[in-house]
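Notebook entry, structure prediction.
Reason for the run: the old model in the group folder had no record of what sequence produced it. Starting over properly, with the input documented here first.
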Amino acid sequence: MPKKNKEEAVQELTWRAAEYQFMEKSVGWYWFVIIAAIVLIFLAVLGRNFFFGVFVVLATAVVIFFGRKRPQVLDFKLSDKGVAIGENVFYDYDRLEGFMILEKPGRLDEIVLKKKAAINPFLKLPIDAKSGKDAEIILQGHLPPIQYEESLLDVVSDWFGF
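New structure, fully documented this time:
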């Protein structure tokens, strides 16, 4: 819930959401993963590449495991101090470069935060559209807006239901 002062400026916003949008996988999805793994294992045998075959088996197990895993529900908080995710993760605004509200029709919107990091610089927080407007007001007081374009990995993971 947003907390407002007398001037009606949003000072703090808290909300609860799943850490990512879970998509139920159909039986066809599992068949696709298994058939793709069998084809890759066959190619590994043809190429006499034992390590690739082992990698395919392990990767298939990981994909199936994470495909079935349900997201954890987390508490998110934006305040004058920074961004809190759950009980153990906190980013103060000095560790962030900018933000963007990414609207996703038919799904939860996302707050995209750019961290001051070379590896994995973007952090995405799910949020409903109404709260996204309040979040934008808070973040504008601390961070500049950025342009964010979804990467190929984002598009592929959405397509595969991750």
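Summary: The beta strands are 3-4, 10-18, 73-78, 82-85, 89-92, 96-102, 109-115, 122-127.
The old model has been moved to the deprecated folder.
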